[in-house]
UniProtKB/TrEMBL annotation:
Keyword Secreted assigned: yes
Protein name per its UniProtKB record: Pectinesterase
Matches recorded under SUPFAM superfamilies: Pectin lyase-like, Plant invertase/pectin methylesterase inhibitor
Primary location: secreted
Entry superkingdom: Eukaryota
Catalyses which reaction(s): [(1->4)-alpha-D-galacturonosyl methyl ester](n) + n H2O = [(1->4)-alpha-D-galacturonosyl](n) + n methanol + n H(+)
Leader sequence residues: 1-18
Amino acid sequence: MGKCCCLVFIAILALVIAGVSIGVPLANKAKAKANDSEQSAADNVCQATSYPATCAQTLASGNYTADSKGVTRYSLQSAETGVNSTLSSILRLNRTNPNVTAALEVCDEVLELSKEQLEAAISVLGGSNSTATKKVMDDLKSWVSAAMELHTTCIDALLEVSPEDGKRIEQDSAHTQELLSNALAFINALATYGDKIQNWKLTGFSIPSGINISDLTGVEIPPVPGFRNRRLLSTTDSLPGWMDAQTKRHLLQAPTYDVVVAQDGSGDFKTIQEAVNAHKENSARLVIYIKSGTYNEQVTVPKTAKYLTFIGDGDKTIITGSRNVALMKGMTTFKSATLIVSGDGFIGRSFKVENTAGAEGHQAVAFRGTARLIAMYQVTFDSYQDTLYAHSFRQYYRDCTVYGTVDFIFGNAEASFQNCKIIAKRSTLLGQQNTYTAQGRTDPQMTTGFSFQNCVFDGTPELKANTTFYKTFLGRPWKAYSVCVLLKSEVLAHVDPSGWMPWNTTTFGLYTSYFAEYQSFGAGADTSKRVSWSHQITSASTAQTYQANNFVGASSWVPSYNLPLTTTL
């Protein structure tokens, strides 16, 4: 090549090098600007959580799309990582201790189920056609609230049987609790404010500064009754999307029996558990008719047994057991139930379930529900302490009767009771106080709570004759953000005029919980003597927030079960 050509080539090369050297800082500046923008967005969305520092730390270390669904999905993924961390922590505990082993059985079950709820939420938000409709968001709120409760249940089980191990795991998993809370906060913000994350802010009320959530005392915080803005659903809404067509057709027909359980051998099975075990996974609804008789067995409907119906002969069909915490080594409240339902879409009709351990057995559950969309109709629940464990997810009780003494309707489900008789009994332990409810909401972002509409809060004749020694209260705060609301319910004279009582004489949860009544009536409904930290609802619109239509979305699924439903106050 000639000298001229070489000079031209050198000149061109110089220009290229110069262009690259100029382009690099420009690209870095653009990238830095984008990073600053994402960091600003992350800082903003973290203000929608109860734990903004944890939120900022989580988002700073992640790889996600900086939009509403991207940050929400990533927060759910981070929460799932946290649950896995808790699982790893419990694996290090001493499994040769029978008490620890009992609690770890609970942990293994509930933590896996917690992960499944988070994965389901991640899947919904990651779908190509995913839209934040009200139904979708209500489902996500319920699932992630349940995921939080399931994680808490593991810790509660450990604290119950091995306090030292329980406290250690509680400390180790505190970060996971915050991750779960923040993930739910993002879902609430997405539901409330939409895709514009710059508009997101904390819904409900925040944890007051300077107050330890494990011992909430002191500052009174005005509760926000029902921060969800949920429209009324009509009875013409479509059946739940998760049901297959065959199940929908089956439910809309008059009840027929697929399987008969009879102790005398005249049916298909002699025990209820055998009939449950015969139900194939992912099959259509199976209706099990349980003939009259006393079935002494612990019945477990596993999570794989979806769409089961139990129909009995009223109180002539009795499912009985006596598992309890006080008299049985290594027993947990969670595992003590006579009837355990973990399969979604369960319907129970016309039977009685009881735990006969008595007051001496302390926690002795008759029924525990840990599944989506449980409905119970004309079912009787009978025990002493902890009769009905409405553990998690959405549940509906209609025309049921519940007997018990201490905290005998408890748990952290979204549970609506309509036209039920809630009957306190006299304990065989002298002077033991009765509490109808002990609701367990642990976080202000949760959508959980108990709602009682047109129910009767009654007592047995033996109790009413001894109200001096056996006082009865509507409820107390089991956890820091308990929610329990009575709507047009009858409160009889044996109920203490103060209505509600503290948890173990402390101020725990009194000013962060929400205990309320709307138009209570009866001899025990004089509100002038109610405790100062309870509420009298005067607005019909506020009361409607806790009506079954709004509170558990009842009109979108209960009618498909062929069960009665009141849709107005």
